[in-house]
């Protein structure tokens, strides 16, 4: 037996104590493929400085669903007892142990604590570090990716961190998300511009409603609703007879991504025909990150979405003022994190912790860009927010998707209803693209796996699908899933597990109406988040756009219509001294609410070379729990505390 001298034992003992520092590196995030339109070009110089952001793990995230359910489930004793913003921040702020673990790790790796800065929200540690330092720290290689429009981004394919840091670090940027900004952009050969297809508001993004080109008549009656939807059709369909009383206290936000913009003459033209007392009414424009209702580019592709959303939201909730959350400047546009920053400040960092393949980074360094500071916590979240935009879930990394999704839970806990349209391509993604077995995107027949939508796949938003009044039917007949021009987005997430509120509904669907597909098409385990949650008419909307009337189709229409109904319910609750309904999913799936929806049992959402799913009795991944009956919902929601 070898007896060690005392000093050697002491060294061994100190190794044992310091053992966590020696834990092996494990892959933290990895990208399966390059984002569409981007390809890897060359290694980046080791002395280039990267503005690194370490996103700290937030505390109590394992309780976030329970906390949200606690204030949103109709049977919870705490129903409606929404949290203040300060309580949310405190509850989820990273623990002091996490903050010091990350700071100590960086310090021990040669990034002295004097170089580290903790963001005011305490959820990012920021460091300027050389590529050589970061490559050593994360055991990776940095490269430059280029798009086909001359843009360049810095990033890596995967990165690793010591095993004992895993629980403390959520995401690190710039890494696999191709956030790619460097401290001195002149160190890149070309200016960094965005691939226009990556901008939510871009005319090529696949967002935005569709038209069949038909020019509708404007002398319409209720008998014409199978061909032409106007506000009176929706009021008749969904039993809406209500005039708001608490408009000063109530709030209803519509999010638009620049360059999408409304035209006031379009609103007036619509009001003149369908809601004459509103001629001249404007939305309240809140400019987020330089957001402008631009009038330089006009036409269906630039004005269709905003005109549709505002004309219907304003007419259906008249005289409720509508808050227009106009997001992003003309150069960069914006992504979902940007409007979230504006209402809850969680994603804000000094130089962009957002996801620049989707989100604008402000201040914008490009010519003509927004020069002000990033819009961070500039308004309180409106009681209802309707967003008729989405992206394929596969285009965002799971960790980014989860981080954003948690923000929706937080604003739900604060009493906001967040409605996202479910997409217009049935079970396929934007541009009818589907997934291959290795997770890449491809049009059928190469792509056969269904391609779910984000944020609809986040369990903490309310996803809205589309229905139609079928030809020769009336507002008194049952609607069908929309099968004109568009198909209602619906399906099962590949990232998010199933939330408790929909377990029974989804299990019932899979058991009683098993779809004729295998796990090769969709996650059929019954353990993943399914969408949409509910639906509303999305066919044949008469909309004034760029000086003329168009017939418009899409879940883009269904979301603001649903948002209007929830806004009216909030008005009635506010009027009797109650609070807004907040996150509605636990209520709408409950037995109590089941009969307040019109179950949709016909039609499907074809895509990926298949008929898609089929609407049927009970919840289904085409039309959710069905379309709302305002009067019945109002009665139920007035009973709740
Ligand atoms: C990183 O460098 C930029 C540009 O010089 C500077 O503005 C920023 O404050 C630095 N950040 C940190 C955390 O030192
Ligand atoms: C993924 O699958 C598609 C279609 O089967 C194929 O074209 C592509 O090369 C594959 N990509 C990878 C990274 O394996
Ligand atoms: C609707 O009614 C019209 C006129 O009666 C008829 O020509 C048309 O075929 C009907 N359409 C459908 C889908 O039943
Ligand atoms: C299905 O979804 C669940 C929950 O997200 C997940 O655990 C499981 O791995 C998924 N199955 C497949 C085959 O992807």
TrEMBL record:
- Where does the record place it? Secreted, Extracellular space
Enzymatic class? hydrolase
* GO biological processes: proteolysis
Task: Give start-end positions of Polar residues composition bias.
Answer: 202-217
Which SMART domains does the entry link to? Pro-kuma_activ
Cofactor annotation: Ca(2+)
The residues that hold Ca(2+) are 599-600, 618, 620
- Please tell me where this protein is predominantly located: secreted
Q: Which UniProt keywords are listed?
A: Calcium, Glycoprotein, Hydrolase, Metal-binding, Protease, Secreted, Serine protease, Signal, Virulence, Zymogen
Q: How is the cofactor bound?
A: Binds 1 Ca(2+) ion per subunit.
Q: Which residues form the active site?
A: 305 (charge relay system), 309 (charge relay system), 556 (charge relay system)
Function comment:
Secreted tripeptidyl-peptidase which degrades proteins at acidic pHs and is involved in virulence.
Task: Return the protein name.
Answer: tripeptidyl-peptidase II
**Organism listed in the record:** Rickenella mellea
Q: What is the lineage of its organism?
A: Eukaryota, Fungi, Dikarya, Basidiomycota, Agaricomycotina
